[in-house]
Amino acid sequence: MAYLIEELEKQNVQCFVAAKQGSAFEKWCHEKNIPCVTFEFRNDFDFASAWKLKSYCDKEKFDLVHLHSSRSHGIAFLASLMGNKIPLVLSRKVDFKLKENIFSKWKYNHSRIKKIICVSDKIREIVGKSLSNPEKCVTVYDGVDLERFAGKGMRGLIRKELGIDDGEIIIGNIAAIAPHKDYFTFLDTVTILTQKLKAKFFITGDGPLRIEVEKRIAAMGLEKDVFMLGFRNDLENVFAELSLLLYTSNEEGLGSTLLDAMAYGLPIVTTEAGGIPEIVKNGFNGLTAPVRNPQKLSEQVMLLLSDHSLREKIIANGKNFVRDFSKEKMASRTLEIYASVVGH
């Protein structure tokens, strides 16, 4: 959202934000002088937030409202039922199957929803199956800041912080610690790898399963091998320490972390979950394995670490491939969809 707003403003599109009260996004809007109001966003049936949204739209007379989460979708749908006539554009970024209940079917098929922007063709396929008019779905791939990671990062900072030798291999995952990111497969893969090579492993991120993952690390006797870095803003420094990124999701809309890694020049081993095969081509710009398959993942890791020419090819191809996934291109494509909705 932040990338999109920054790029749209460069195109003279004025953006207003309705953010969750007390959120990091609200803070970012204030820092960037983006007009921002706050709602509570309690649940899909938050009538108070829906009424506030309707009133905000009545006051500002927006051309359209872009919804970036399931909850904002539910609230905007209620606001439409309350009389808000502004067209809605929805973004869908996860490859979970849509719920089959009446409310879900109603809010996705409501006439006020003009376009559903899907982060991958796989998501477009999944969402389209639940729509009476699947042509509403369009694919716009996530964009990343190609300059943020290119040539950046200080190697050695985190190693020194954690007491890891300079020459030691480090393999890492960067993702929310949530069920669909499947850190349990990551740990199962780590167990296999520790029998084959001397290495350390990073888990970078935070989320609802953190305590459970910590318990699993202890139960598997991996406390000296796996380091949990928590949420970090200096991902370029994390990338700088890694020999490769091991990304083990069992469900994934696209995987923008994989694009960030390519932009940095980091080789990738990942699963074939969701939209990942659209951006990671096995043997071309990464190595892939089926979901929940630690044995195959470990084999791909060992191949990438042992085959220098393959590694260099994957890094070079990744850097070239990711150029088509810039935040500028994402915003440009999104703006085309906005124009088609409002008739400009």
Entry summary:
It contains 15 helices and 12 strands.
Tags for this entry?
single chain, 344 residues, alpha/beta, Rossmann fold, 2 domains, four-stranded parallel beta sheet, 12 strands, elongated
Descriptive report:
The chain has 344 residues and is of the alpha/beta class. It folds into two domains: 2-143 and 326-342, Rossmann fold (3-Layer(aba) Sandwich); 146-324, Rossmann fold (3-Layer(aba) Sandwich). It contains 15 helices and twelve strands. The protein has helices at residues 2-10, 24-31, 47-60, 70-81, 102-109, 121-128, 146-149, 157-162, 183-193, 210-219, 235-241, 256-264, 294-306, 308-321, 327-342, and strands spanning 17-20, 36-39, 65-67, 88-92, 113-118, 137-139, 169-174, 199-204, 226-230, 244-247, 268-271, 287-289. A six-stranded parallel β-sheet has the order 9-8-7-10-11-12, sandwiched between helices. Helix 6 (121-128) links the parallel strand 5 (113-118) and strand 6. The longest helix is centred in the C-terminal third of the chain and has 16 residues, at 327-342. It is elongated. The mean pLDDT is 95.
How does the SSE layout of this entry go?
Elements: H1 2-10, E1 17-20, H2 24-31, E2 36-39, H3 47-60, E3 65-67, H4 70-81, E4 88-92, H5 102-109, E5 113-118, H6 121-128, E6 137-139, H7 146-149, H8 157-162, E7 169-174, H9 183-193, E8 199-204, H10 210-219, E9 226-230, H11 235-241, E10 244-247, H12 256-264, E11 268-271, E12 287-289, H13 294-306, H14 308-321, H15 327-342
Parallel strand pairs: 1-2, 3-4, 4-5, 5-6, 7-8, 7-10, 8-9, 10-11, 11-12
